[in-house]
Specification:
By secondary structure, the chain is mainly α. It contains ten helices and eight strands. The strands form four sheets. It has a two-stranded antiparallel ribbon. The chain has a two-stranded antiparallel sheet with strand order 3-4.
């Protein structure tokens, strides 16, 4: 812990007093943001929603890596740019061609999925100095560094210090294990199939419920909370056992 604090302290000192010309951090030039040409998002940074398929294929699920959220369908999530497009524009893309800007907007290395509320209200165009994800911070920090290097983008001092504070504590840069290995839509379909099987076994009158009479007839009473029939029964006293 002391070593981490010392490293960060040294970095902050270097960033505060190093010469402005040619100053770098992890191979990235440190410079203030500067808008050298108008930011025309619709014209220069257009990207198709079909990119969601590539993001899902890359991550392995319809999954929000910033929060660990599993989405029921791609339509519930936004495409999120790790390094925001306006941030990149003000960090060097303002001097690049429209082709380079569009390539940046569609670069799968810089894309993730996020809930609309997070993408549009929380993160928006903020950099790492003003916003960091709740989950997968090491993965996020490495992506920011790699994207800035790939497009020769600059970085301002505050963001460099914020990212260094994260990276100095990272053991690796892998995504945390996915909470959902399948989408919620698939999980619900499989649960529905399982539930239908339970009802076929024990619901003799086909009303979608299992009574104690039916449970005793099939020899499963008393029915505890961990039994697959329990969700289809009425536990009047809420003690986790039915038909005791």
């Amino acid at each position: 812990m002391r070593r981490d604090i010392l490293c960060i302290s040294i970095l902050m000192t270097l960033l505060a007093f190093a010469p402005a010309m040619g100053e770098t951090w992890r191979g990235i030039v440190i410079a203030p943001e500067h808008r050298c040409s108008p930011y025309e998002r619709k014209r220069d940074y257009h990207y198709p929603q079909s990119l969601k398929r590539d993001i899902i294929r890359q991550i392995g699920a319809v999954y929000g890596v910033y929060t660990g959220t599993c989405f029921a369908s791609p339509g519930q999530a936004d495409i999120e740019h790790i390094v925001a497009m306006s941030e990149a524009h003000d960090s060097g893309l303002c001097a690049e061609s429209r082709a380079v800007r569009q390539r940046f907007a569609r670069d799968i290395r810089n894309l993730a999925l996020a809930a609309p509320s997070l993408n549009r209200n929380q993160k928006r165009s903020k950099d790492a100095a003003d916003w960091l994800p709740a989950r997968n911070r090491c993965w996020f920090a490495e992506r920011v560094v790699n994207i800035r290097r790939a497009y020769n983008l600059t970085i301002d001092r505050r963001e460099a210090m914020a990212l260094e504070a994260v990276i100095s504590k990272c053991q690796n840069y892998q995504l945390e294990p996915l909470v959902c290995h399948q989408t919620l839509a698939v999980k619900r379909r499989r649960q529905s199939e399982d539930e239908s099987g339970v009802l076929r076994l024990y619901d003799d009158n086909g009303n979608g419920r299992i009574t104690c009479k039916e449970a005793r007839r099939h020899g499963i009473a008393p029915v505890s909370r961990d039994h697959p029939a329990y969700p289809f029964m009425r536990d009047a006293d809420g003690d986790g056992v039915v038909c005791e």
